[in-house]
């Protein structure tokens, strides 16, 4: 998810009223749109209702045909998915409503460079299909923490990663998507924020609980089509309005609000707005950070995160997993054109609202004193889309919200049931695990609703910064560990664990400093310590990644290695090894207690492990 300098907070009813009043600059740079009511017409309402019915129908249909009687069937769609729904699900699982609003807002504020966050995903998806998934499939795991347990033994790494993932899901991904989507719907339809939230969560949870991953992936495929088509429609309308790319370049560079703050340059569009590679020192997204730091975060997101990897693990064979990665990579090229550029167009057309810098003006426009760039996408929809198509765009935002939530709900229930509940109830049956997974979805829904007031009262401009901080401070150690676990056989459990702990401490210290010394508003002097104002968060990700690798390797070299026979089918170099894998838990017990104790590593029986030598070249 891209970084944004601003977030919305405040009275949404007042925001809805203000947004309907298009300001008229003294020297207009654009044709003033006709004042219009944001009330939806009957065609808009019909489109939204049809969308809900259609999504529920697809969810119910896929639930009925899903294999839900086993854990592999419920959590991994019976490992029967083909490449095209996997690729579509990879796209929609990552593109939530928060991305539509946040990515467009960052594009409005800073230009094209934020699109690099999306383009960087293309190579990471290829790495997922060609490097990571073959190892995951050969090891026969359902979750990423489960892979870590098989690879290193013990439980502390598995439990740490599971709990960390659930915390990230609840307080960043779920809360951001819910708030962004519900706020957008409230502005557009006039629904109460909590009513919007509850309805969306209930509909989303119904087919997630009922059908497992099969229902999630098929509804994701449907909603990916809706998202892409709807966003493309708005893109063409926006470009036609602004005068295509040449008109955007001209109008964006002159998109200055009427009211500015004296002796500052905050109101001026960035001179490098149309450049992807920006200055390594003064750039808001420096090019070394974009190429290398973002790659660390991308590998975490696309190759080790349960929400994403679970889609690829549902493939009927490795060829379909690779095909899904290729399709997902192509789809990730599109957000630059149908989200980032429309955000820039919104600022070019409505500089007094989207580009406001005066705290008093901004608070009147959107309730946030630091700026209103996050209204760029909703503003564009409400001003430019005709009746009927406006309803389609509401359906697009709903699709983004529900696709992201269904993916997170399903993956969170998988993590809890397999990695946490199985540790508590070691003899739990498959039926019990599936019931626990479904109940946990309901708990997530309740926590998410309770989290909404906290998001509403959060400091303006901190929501997206908070999300990126969490990613930059917690993801690099996980990326480092997964890369070493797959490619370096010498790495052992003590090295892995203490590397994670070192990375957690260093990242936590930087995170605390970020919240103690907040970034200054426009016109204020930056009095933060040099380590904060001079070290971009993407640079910090590179540093933390390198330090974690050093700690993991050092501790591993100082402690006994894992026996070679215990690594069968668990690394890149041993993924074809036919030797039956030894349970690392058994190895630990034998070394410490001299008493063999067989414990299941996975709820998938050995017969369900996929033989890569036979299936790697399966037809697509």
Write the topology of this structure:
Layout: H1 12-19, H2 42-65, H3 71-76, H4 83-94, H5 97-110, H6 116-139, H7 144-152, H8 156-189, H9 193-242, H10 244-253, H11 287-304, H12 306-313, H13 318-331, H14 335-349, H15 351-354, H16 359-366, H17 376-384, H18 389-424, H19 430-457, H20 463-487, H21 493-516, H22 530-533, H23 537-557, H24 584-593, H25 612-615
Helix pairs in contact: 1-8, 2-9, 2-18, 4-9, 4-12, 4-13, 4-18, 5-8, 5-14, 6-11, 6-13, 7-8, 8-9, 8-18, 8-19, 8-20, 9-10, 9-14, 9-18, 9-19, 10-14, 11-20, 11-23, 12-18, 14-17, 18-19, 20-21, 20-23, 21-23
Account of the protein in words:
Helix 1 crosses helix 8, helix 8 (156-189) packs antiparallel against helix 18 (389-424) and helix 12 (306-313) crosses helix 18 (389-424). This protein has helices at 12-19, 42-65, 71-76, 83-94, 97-110, 116-139, 144-152, 156-189, 193-242, 244-253, 287-304, 306-313, 318-331, 335-349, 351-354, 359-366, 376-384, 389-424, 430-457, 463-487, 493-516, 530-533, 537-557, 584-593, 612-615. By secondary structure, the protein is mainly α. The model is unreliable at 1-37, 67-78, 457-462 and 588-620 (pLDDT under 50). The chain has 25 helices and no strands.
């Amino acid at each position: 998810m891209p970084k944004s300098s601003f977030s919305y907070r405040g009275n949404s009813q007042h925001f809805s009223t203000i947004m309907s009043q298009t300001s008229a600059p003294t020297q207009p740079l654009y044709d003033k749109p006709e004042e219009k009511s944001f009330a939806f017409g009957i065609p808009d309402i019909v489109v939204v209702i049809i969308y809900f019915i259609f999504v529920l129908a697809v969810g119910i249909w896929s639930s009925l045909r899903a294999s839900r009687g086993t854990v592999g069937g419920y959590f991994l769609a019976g490992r029967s998915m083909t490449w095209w729904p996997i690729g579509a699900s990879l796209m929609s699982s990552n593109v939530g409503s928060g991305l539509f609003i946040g990515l467009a807002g960052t594009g409005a504020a800073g230009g094209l460079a934020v699109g690099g966050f999306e383009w960087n995903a293309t190579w990471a998806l290829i790495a997922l299909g060609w490097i990571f998934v073959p190892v995951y499939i050969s090891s026969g795991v359902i979750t990423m923490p489960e892979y870590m347990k098989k690879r290193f033994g013990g439980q502390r790494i598995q439990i740490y990663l599971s709990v960390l993932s659930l915390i990230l899901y609840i307080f960043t991904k779920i809360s951001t998507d819910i708030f962004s989507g519900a706020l957008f719907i409230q502005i557009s339809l006039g629904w109460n924020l909590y009513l919007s939230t509850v309805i969306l969560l209930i509909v989303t949870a119904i087919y997630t609980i009922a059908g497992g991953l099969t229902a999630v992936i098929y509804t994701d495929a449907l909603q990916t089509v809706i998202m892409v088509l709807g966003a493309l429609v708005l893109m063409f309308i926006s470009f036609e309005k602004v005068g295509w790319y040449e008109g955007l370049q001209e109008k964006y560079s002159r998109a200055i609000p009427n009211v500015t703050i004296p002796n500052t340059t905050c109101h001026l569009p960035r001179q490098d707005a149309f450049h992807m590679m920006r200055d390594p020192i003064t750039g808001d997204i420096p090019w070394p950070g974009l190429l290398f730091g973002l790659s660390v975060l991308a590998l975490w997101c696309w190759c080790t995160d349960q929400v994403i990897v679970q889609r690829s693990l549902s493939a009927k064979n490795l060829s379909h997993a690779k095909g899904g990665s290729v399709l997902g990579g192509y789809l990730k090229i599109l957000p630059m054109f149908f989200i980032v550029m429309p955000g820039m167009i919104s600022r070019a057309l409505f500089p007094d609202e989207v580009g406001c810098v005066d705290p008093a003006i901004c608070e009147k426009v959107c309730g946030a004193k630091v700026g209103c760039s996050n209204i760029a996408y909703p503003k564009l929809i409400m001003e430019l889309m005709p009746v009927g198509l406006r309803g389609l765009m509401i359906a697009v935002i709903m699709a983004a919200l529900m696709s992201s939530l269904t993916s997170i709900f399903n993956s969170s229930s998988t993590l809890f049931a397999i990695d946490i509940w199985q540790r508590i109830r070691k003899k739990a049956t498959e039926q019990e695990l599936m019931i626990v997974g479904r109940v946990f979805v309901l708990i997530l829904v309740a926590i998410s609703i309770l989290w909404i007031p906290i998001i509403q009262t959060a400091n303006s401009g901190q929501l997206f910064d908070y999300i990126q901080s969490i990613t930059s401070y917690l993801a690099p150690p996980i990326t480092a560990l997964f890369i070493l676990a797959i490619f370096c056989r010498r790495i052992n459990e003590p090295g892995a664990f203490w590397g994670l702990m070192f990375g957690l401490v260093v990242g936590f210290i930087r995170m605390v400093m970020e919240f103690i010394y907040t970034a200054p508003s426009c016109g204020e002097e930056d009095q933060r310590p040099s380590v904060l104002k001079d070290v971009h968060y993407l640079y910090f990700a590179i540093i933390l990644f390198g330090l974690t690798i050093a700690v993991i390797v050092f501790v591993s070299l100082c402690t006994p290695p894992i026996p070679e026979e215990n690594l069968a089918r668990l690394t890149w170099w041993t993924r074809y090894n036919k030797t039956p894998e030894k349970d690392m838990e058994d190895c630990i017990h034998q070394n410490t207690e001299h008493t063999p104790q067989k414990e299941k590593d996975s709820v998938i029986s050995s017969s369900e492990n996929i033989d890569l030598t036979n299936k790697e070249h399966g037809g697509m």
